[in-house]
Amino acid sequence: MKYPSFDHIIESLNAGKLFSFPGGVHPDDKKSLSNTESIATAPMPDILVLPLRQHVGSEGQCCVSVGDYVFKGQPISTTTSPYSVPVHAPTSGEIIAIAPHVVAHPSGLTEMCVSIKPDGKDTWGELTPLMDYQQRDKSQVIEAICQAGVAGMGGAGFPTHIKTANSKPVEFLVINGVECEPYITSDDRLMREHAWQIRQGLDILNHLVSPKAIIIAVEDNKPQAIEALNIACQDKQEYRVVPVETKYPAGGEKQLIQVLTGREVPRNGLPADVGVIMFNVGTCYAIADAILHGKPLIERIVTVTGDAVEHARNFRVLLGTPVSHLLDAAKYQPKKQKSPRVIMGGPMMGFALADATIPVVKTTNCLLVPSKKELVADNAERPCIRCSACADACPASLLPQQMFWHAKAKEYDKAEEYDLFDCIECGACAYVCPSEIPLVHYYRQAKSEIRLQRDERNKAEKAKQRFEARNERLAREKREREEKHRKAKEARLAATNNKTTTTASSGSESAKGGAAKDKVAAALARAKAKKAAQQAQASADEASLSQSTETDSAKDAKKAQVAAAIARAKAKKAAQQAETTSATPSSESATNAPDSPPQQTELSAADEKKARVAAAVARAKAKKAAQAKASMSDAATENKTDSSSDGAKEESAPVSRPPAGLSTDEADSKKARIAAAVAKAKAKKATQQETAEETKTPSSQSSEQSSEQAEQQDVSDPAAEKKARIAAAVAKAKAKKAKAEREKNS
After folding, report:
1. Are residues 579 and 684 in the same domain?
2. Which of 115, 225, 438, 724 has its CB surrounded by the most CB atoms within 10 Å?
3. Which controlled-vocabulary keywords does the entry list (predicted)?
């Protein structure tokens, strides 16, 4: 939307031409009841009840306790958020209660209040004025306004320090002195009697806001106030006192901006969005008191009027004064009412109080006490006739009739579709309604319900967000714990693997040592076996045994070699198993590392023991075979001797005669000893050769062949032993027979 430019607006103001707003009404103002007398000071009440929240925003935090003594102007609450302002003690006295108390609200709600019992001395506390505010930083001046508890005194009570700290560029600073609602004259009397102090407050605002133009708007039915302000601002040409047409609700913030500048404040927007900032004349007065005199906001001007009071006028009232005390000061006449009825505010936008003990607060500008015939009763409502008078009177260009239907049916979503929250609750629709329907009450109730529903949704959404955040936090903590445990487990496994590697290395070295011993034992066994074989062969050659006997001896020697090969193969196999276990441990051995080293050690020891046993068996067999061959050689020699001397049937062989001087038995015995010595020497020599060959490099092929021979030896060991025993028995029998024959012949 295109708005009028700044220069165009200034030209219109200089020419005395203003803009207008739609709708509006012209009710009987009834201002003459109270504006003819000067402001009076209300007497001190017995008890002052101060709500901790007297403005739009959050309440402050109480900073006093029951039994404390407070001075006049001393803070009794502190600010807890940017949208809160402190509350101060209106007079000196004692704190007698801090408890919930009924406050100024259409529903008669209770809020936390501080009750003070005045001591009658009215002793001021320490005051800190800022006379040199122009030389101070703006933020310091704004903070002083906030600590003085100044809030808007013409409407909803918006905190003043929030407006003055606006960061947007301001073209127009507007001082609202219109006061368009009937009966109310508090601002009128204030402008008449304290125009100069309003001008001082305007100077402070001008210093803080730095606007391009300053406008003081006053309704044209207040000529005395206009004159007083012109006199106060005559030395400031940039301060324009502009009379405004008497039309309700011209004093509304959005409507007054539209009248002065032709600019319309957007929906859900603020006056600053169109380059305008507005303050009430009562707010200007309070700012001057706070900065130039150091006085906090502890009192205000209140109009007490209506036909049911004998002496209607304006009073200077301490905040926290009960309504009943002011009614007594104005000489309330209950006989002129059907039932006690007091309206806080004007007849258009005010609301009836539920209790006469409700205290005066910062936003209280009027107490209206109507007589029986003065205002329409609430129970006079009749059905809507759909005349559309309410739509014609609406200054916000809304459809009050549709909003009323949906609000009454509690169809709040549809009421919102008709821009319910754009309603300024001016009461113009209700004023012109021929059915006397209290439309504003329905709108207020609908707004309240919608706000409650929104609060519930917001609470539910916040609870959901907290729940989701909690779940996310728990999941994150679980992941962190699992990660921590995983790292700790990996560290433990790494330490265990290192230990296992060390143990396996030592075990491998032990196994290698055992394998070396087994190799030596196998070499010895092979040497002895070879020696035994050589002895057997020599004995066979010397004794010229039969072919069958020679074959048996060869088999026995081969069996001995096979036994030695078995021992070597087992030793080599044990060494290979130890090396394989230490080089590539399986995943199972890594997992069960603490149990692996003992198992490997046990296996190596068993293999070593088997190898030693095999070697011992081979040695025993070789020794036994050698003994058997020696016996057979002796027997063969005896047989040959017997055959030659007795002329046996066997075919001749070379005759062996005993040397001269020796008997036959002695000769046989000597031959056997010689044969044994020869066999022993050959076996020793063969042992030395085998040991030398084993020490060099035994090939893998011979090891494999020895393994096969060892396997065969394992199978044939019992038969060889049996044959050796039989051969020994045969030789012994033959020797015995030959001896018997020699004795017979001799």
Report:
1. yes
2. 225
3. 4Fe-4S, Cell inner membrane, Cell membrane, Electron transport, Iron, Iron-sulfur, Membrane, Metal-binding, Repeat, Translocase, Transport
Domain identity same for 469 and 526: no
| 188 closest CA partner among 158, 149, 227, 161 | 227
> pTM for the whole thing?
0.64
Does residue 683 fall inside a structural domain?
yes
Binding site, by residue number, is 384, 387, 390, 394, 423, 426, 429, 433
**What is the number of domains present in the chain?**
3
State pLDDT tens for residues 120-151.
999 999 999 999 999 999 999 999 999 999 99
User: Which class for 123: exposed (0-12), middle (13-18), buried (19 or more C-beta within 10 A)?
Assistant: middle
Which CATH number do you get for residue 170?
3.40.50.11540
**Rounded to an integer, what distance in angstroms lies between the CA atom of residue 315 and that of residue 44?**
12
Q: Hey, which residues does 244 pair with through a beta bridge? A: 219
Are 531 and 599 found together in one domain? yes
Alpha carbons 198 and 409: distance in angstroms, whole number = 47
Q: Own/partner pairs for 106-113, CB < 8 Å, 24+ apart?
A: 106/351, 106/352, 106/444, 107/354, 108/353, 108/354, 108/355, 111/51, 111/52, 111/53, 111/59, 112/51, 112/52, 112/59, 112/62, 113/49, 113/50, 113/51, 113/52, 113/359
- Using CA atoms, how far residue 561 sits from 229, 238, 300, 682, in Å, is 138, 132, 129, 16
Residue 395 CA to residue 701 CA, distance in Å, equals 117
Task: Look up tokens 């002796």; give the residue.
Answer: 634
Summarised one tens digit per residue, pLDDT across range 453-507 is: 988 889 999 999 999 999 999 999 999 999 999 999 999 888 888 888 877 666 6
Q: Which residues make up each annotated binding site for [4Fe-4S] cluster?
A: 384, 387, 390, 394, 423, 426, 429, 433
Is 531 buried (19+), middle (13-18) or exposed (0-12) by CB count in 10 A?
Answer: buried
- Kind and range of the H or E element at 687? helix 664-695
Q: Are 604 and 736 in a shared domain? A: yes
Rounded (5°) CA angle 615-618-619? 85
Do 368 and 345 meet the contact criterion of CB atoms below 8 Å apart? Answer: yes
Rounded Cα distance, 250 and 220, in Å? 11
Quote the tokens at residue 378: 């609430």
Model confidence pLDDT, tens digit, residues 232-246: 999 998 999 999 999
Do residues 417 and 548 both lie within one domain? no
How many Cβ atoms from other residues are within 10 Å of residue 355's Cβ?
Answer: 14
Report d(CA 562, CA 28) in Å as an integer.
139
